[in-house]
Design a protein that fits this description.
Number of strands of chain B: 11
Number of helices of chain B: 4
Distance between the termini of chain B: 14 Å
Radius of gyration of chain A: 12 Å
Oligomer: heterodimer
Helix content of chain B: 25-40%
CATH superfamily of chain B: 4'-phosphopantetheinyl transferase domain
Shape of chain A: globular
CATH architecture of chain B: Alpha-Beta Complex
Low-confidence stretches of chain B: none
Strand order of the largest sheet of chain B: 1-5-4-3-2
Low-confidence stretches of chain A: none
CATH class of chain B: Alpha Beta
CATH superfamily of chain A: ACP-like
Largest sheet of chain B: 5 strands, antiparallel
CATH topology of chain A: Non-ribosomal Peptide Synthetase Peptidyl Carrier Protein, Chain A
Helix content of chain A: 40-55%
Structural class of chain A: mainly alpha
Largest sheet of chain A: none
Structural class of chain B: alpha+beta
Largest interface: A-B, 18 and 19 residues
Number of strands of chain A: 0
Order of helices and strands of chain B: EHHHEEEEEHEEEEE
Chain lengths: 83, 191
């Protein structure tokens, strides 16, 4: 799976939770789930569960701590898929 | 140090909320037991979440910490419920934050403070867009300065600071919004 495919899948996963739709227009590694997309912090865990299901991985609590941007999520997914 | 959190009860909670996968990422087993055994588990879940959020904001401001998504570090306990006031404690590392929450039919609002006796004032609004203006009105009265002096600037950790004529006032406050509601809490210690 390429970086681009992963990023597109992340975008599709977060879209239902996004409260600031303009933030999706230039979706990239640096897109911040909370400050750019205004995803409610209570919904971040839903995003994490959807990511686990989509990529068939388990995101441990330490990884979850640092999942603030699309790029963070991508790096975590790549690392978990390798192991 | 203070933090606050408002939750609009009209916004449905996650459809995953009963699943252990969901609960295990947010709540300790003691918290899950308290939530699931309560009379209204969905309300309790949101109450506990608001405690974690309010304490997170207070803790982040206290130590100027980078943002982190670590709800499990914040361990909540409800101490007492009298009339509409719900008192609790949130523990993170060696810090204890004292919480005061109020639940209405429309929302849940929680305040967390490091010092139990710190005087504070809070306000809740039915509109997200008025929050900064209302905060400036409050500070205008407290600091005896015109509202137009004030602006809010977030630092690199996204913590808001109140500036007056381009100087950081060092005032301690917390902002929150969710759905129809917004809220602020102000520490009156240095006003």
């Amino acid at each position: 799976m390429t970086d681009k495919t992963i990023l597109e899948k992340i975008k599709a996963i977060v879209t239902p939770y996004v409260q600031r739709k303009e933030g999706l227009e230039d979706f990239s590694d640096s897109t911040d789930f909370i400050t750019d997309l205004k995803i409610n912090s209570a919904n971040l865990v839903d995003v994490i569960l959807d990511v686990e299901d989509e990529f068939n991985i388990e995101i441990d609590n330490t990884s979850m701590e640092g999942m603030l941007t699309a790029g963070d999520a991508k790096r975590i997914i790549l690392t978990k898929m390798e192991s | 140090m203070i933090g606050n959190d408002i939750i609009d009860l009209d916004i449905p909670i996650s459809p995953n909320w009963k699943s252990p996968r969901y609960l295990n990422k947010l709540f300790s087993s003691a918290e899950q037991t308290a939530i699931l055994k309560s009379e209204k588990p969905e309300i309790s879940l949101q109450l506990f979440w608001s405690l974690k959020e309010a304490a997170y904001k207070a803790h982040q401001r206290q130590f100027n910490l980078p943002r982190k998504y670590n709800p499990l570090y914040f361990q909540c306990e409800i101490i007492s419920e009298e009339k509409n006031n719900i008192h609790g404690i949130v523990k993170i590392n060696s810090q204890n934050y004292f919480t005061l929450s109020r639940i209405t039919a429309a929302n849940i609002h929680s305040i967390a403070t490091l010092d139990k006796n710190i005087p504070t004032t809070f306000k809740i609004f039915k509109d997200e867009n008025v929050l900064k203006d209302k905060l400036f009105t409050e500070y205008s009265l407290l600091l005896k300065q015109p509202k137009s002096n004030f602006r809010i600037q977030k630092n690199k950790h996204n913590i808001p600071h109140l500036f007056s004529n381009n100087l950081n006032t060092g005032q301690v406050f917390s902002l929150s919004h969710h759905g129809r509601f917004s809220a602020f809490v102000i520490s009156l210690m240095n006003c």
